Amino acid sequence: MSAAPPVDDRRPGEGRGPSSADTSTPARSTPAAGEHLAPRPRIESGAGSSPGRSTPAAWIGFRTLLYKEVLRFWKVSFQTIAAPVLTGVLYLLVFGHVLEKHVEAFPGVSYTAFLIPGLVMMSVLQNSFANSSSSLIQSKITGNLVFMLLPPLSHLEFFGAYVIGSIARGLLVGLGVYAVTLWFAPEPLLHAKAPLWIIVFALAGSALLGVLGLIAGIVSDKFDQLAAFQNFIIMPATFLSGVFYSVHGLPPFWQAVSHVNPFFYIVDGFRYGFFAQADVSPWISFAVVLTALALASAIALGMLARGYKIRH
To answer: DSSP letter string over 195-227?
Structure first.
């Protein structure tokens, strides 16, 4: 019996030697002399990446949310800016006309001139609170809050966008009230004695109320709860802050109550910037306002970090 022929285990097209089938040129593992490999394209981290994302991408979510908050009130500026300006002017016309010749809160300062800074700050406070609180409660009720929770926004970015949007609206309304009422007492208001304090208390006051509005929007589940927060806390605190009077003219009990109210220090410090006269030292007012702002911010950031009544 003859032996079996050897088995050819070569794949089709595979030759035995160098002249066999596959003639394709193998890829070079190293570049030839003088040749450089093209660099690999860099993949930028997106907005949803981890804490190591690039700086431009990290700010996309924050900028978008801030733009949304500003555009939200700017699109209806006749209601959100013009209407509060008109309200401030009406307050001035009524109280200024009635009390101008009967009240002198500060020596050498007419009641109209005394009243205008208070009305400006009252408008700033109320509208800063209204912006963040109404925006958040509307998003919760209409259900579009989920579209702000889907992107990987940190609680700091969420907090910053809402508060800065509130500051923008509050300052715009305050500037509008100041510009319109300036005609009634141009001399003392155009020549402010300490303009730096005006800027400091305008920013700190609008920021504080923006944070309080954010807290109210988080806690509230419907408009009735938000209205109770505004009608029973914000409105009384604003009207009892010395907008229309000097606290030195109050009985001792109500003077003590006013000194517990942080809104009083905002209005008093803001007014000091115009006349260099105040019921309390501006440094004390600034310390109180800064403490209240830090406390409110800590509460709001804690709620946002836990997702209290937002994610749960």
So the answer is: HHHHHHHHHHHHHHHHHHHHHHHHH-SSHHHHH
Alpha helices in the chain (DSSP H): 55-58, 60-74, 77, 83-99, 111-142, 146-149, 155-181, 186-190, 195-219, 223-229, 235-239, 252-260, 262-275, 282-306
The CA distance from 119 to 96, in Å, is: 11
270, 117 Cβ separation under 8 angstroms: yes
- In eight-state DSSP terms, residue 249 is G
Backbone angles phi, psi at 12, to 5 degrees: -55, 135
Q: Which among 151, 45, 130 has a CA at the least distance from the CA of 80? A: 130
Span 238-294, pLDDT tens digits: 988 999 988 888 888 888 888 999 999 999 999 999 999 999 999 999 999 999 999
Q: How far apart are CA 195 and CA 276, in angstroms?
A: 10
What predicted TM-score, i.e. pTM, was given to this entire model? 0.79
* Cα–Cα distance, 161 to 258 (Å, whole number): 31
Residue 118 has pLDDT above 50, yes or no: yes
Using one digit for the tens of pLDDT, what is the confidence trace for 58-109? 688 899 999 999 999 999 999 999 999 999 999 999 888 888 877 777 888 8
Task: Say how far residue 141 (Cα) sits from the centre of its chain.
Answer: 21
Q: Identity (one letter) of the amino acid at 246?
A: S
Asked if residues 234 and 130 have their Cβ atoms less than 8 Å apart, the reply is: no
CA 143 – CA 39 distance, rounded (Å):
46
Q: Where are the domains of the chain?
A: 108-306
Six-digit token string for 235: 């409105």
Instruction: Name the DSSP letter for residue 233.
Output: I
Q: CA 290 to CA 114: how far, in whole Å?
A: 24
